[in-house]
């Protein structure tokens, strides 16, 4: 819902938007991409918000979400999934939010229903750049965020809950890791998303028993500790596993 309607005019639908929860992983913790509403002072309300935009009249919801991601990250063909619709009639009635909307929208009082999506991005592939709806954007640890603009904190929590459920039954977490990763990095990823400690030995045993990782016979380089072995996700092995009825990682 965050574009300049005063410049773009009637091409955008003033009542429907998409907001995107873009997750990343810095090899230690789960992060999310947020935009900084620099026009809002900290005393008046949250400066951080999720990236989003009103939809164009000639695009569907998925296309709108993909456009937001492309404008902000420059990335295409990344994991994207709908979280749900958020339509509280008072979702944009906070004083700080309305002040910001008045500065960027031709119809700041229009009710806006937003459809939220979450996506998974390899941080190493992301090159921050300004978009039509965000001059400043950056990564923030999910667990360190306590408030966001509008109802975006609620959206963030809903997206994280959906990610928690999906990662238990599908290998979508590999979308957050580098192509080559260590078992320790994979272990930290699951702990970060599931918000709970996982016994390292049991975790490794379960993962390796599934035979969906390929040992690259390579070691880490340039690390201040004993180099660990590198692995990659084997999509072919995973598909074979699903054909045998696999449907849960058991974490």
Q: What characteristics describe this protein?
A:
7 helices; 9 strands; 2 domains; Nucleoside Triphosphate Pyrophosphohydrolase; Arc Repressor Mutant, subunit A
Task: Kindly describe this structure.
- There is one protein chain.
- Residues 1-10 have low confidence and may be disordered.
- The chain folds into 2 domains: 5-167, Nucleoside Triphosphate Pyrophosphohydrolase (Alpha-Beta Complex), CATH 3.90.79.10; 178-243, Arc Repressor Mutant, subunit A (Orthogonal Bundle), CATH 1.10.10.10.
- A hairpin with a 4-residue loop joins strand 1 (12-25) and strand 2.
- It is of the alpha+beta class.
- Helix content is 31%, strand content 24%.
- Strands 1, 2, 3, 4, 5, 6 and 7 form a 7-stranded mixed beta sheet that branches. It has a two-stranded antiparallel ribbon with strand order 8-9.
- The longest helix has 18 residues, at 152-169.
Mean pLDDT: 85
The CATH homologous superfamily of the largest domain is called Nucleoside Triphosphate Pyrophosphohydrolase
Number of domains: 2
CATH class label of the largest domain: Alpha Beta
Q: In total, how many beta strands?
A: 9
Q: First CA to last CA: what distance?
A: 36 Å
Name the structural class: alpha+beta
- Helix-strand pattern, N to C? HEEEEHEHEEHHHEEH
CATH topology of the largest domain: Nucleoside Triphosphate Pyrophosphohydrolase
Instruction: Give the name of the CATH architecture of the largest domain.
Output: Alpha-Beta Complex
The biggest beta sheet is recorded as: 7 strands, mixed
The gyration radius over C-alpha positions equals 20 Å
What sort of overall outline do the alpha carbons produce when their principal axes are compared? elongated
Approximately how much helix is present in the residues?
A: 25-40%
Strand content: 15-25%
């Amino acid at each position: 819902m965050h574009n300049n309607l005063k410049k773009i005019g009637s091409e955008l639908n003033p009542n429907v938007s998409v907001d995107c929860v873009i997750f990343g992983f810095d090899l230690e913790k789960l992060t999310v991409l947020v935009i900084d509403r620099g026009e809002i002072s900290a005393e008046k309300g949250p400066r951080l918000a999720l990236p989003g935009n009103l939809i164009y009249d000639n695009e569907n919801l998925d296309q709108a979400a993909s456009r937001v991601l492309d404008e902000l990250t420059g990335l295409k063909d990344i994991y994207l999934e709908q979280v749900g619709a958020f339509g509280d009639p008072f979702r944009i009635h906070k004083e700080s939010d309305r002040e910001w909307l008045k500065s960027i929208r031709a119809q700041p009082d229009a009710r806006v229903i937003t459809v939220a999506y979450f996506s998974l991005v390899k941080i190493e592939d992301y090159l921050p750049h300004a978009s039509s709806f965000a001059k400043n954007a950056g990564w923030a640890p999910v667990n360190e965020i306590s408030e966001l603009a509008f109802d975006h904190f609620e959206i963030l929590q809903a997206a994280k809950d959906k990610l928690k459920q999906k990662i238990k039954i599908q290998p979508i977490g590999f979308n957050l890791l580098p192509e080559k990763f260590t078992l320790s990095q994979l272990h930290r990823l699951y702990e970060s998303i599931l918000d709970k400690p996982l016994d390292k030995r049991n975790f490794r045993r379960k993962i390796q028993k599934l035979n969906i990782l390929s040992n690259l016979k390579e070691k880490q380089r340039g690390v201040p500790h004993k180099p660990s072995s590198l692995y990659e996700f084997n999509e072919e092995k995973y598909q074979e596993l699903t054909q045998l009825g696999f449907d849960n990682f058991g974490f």
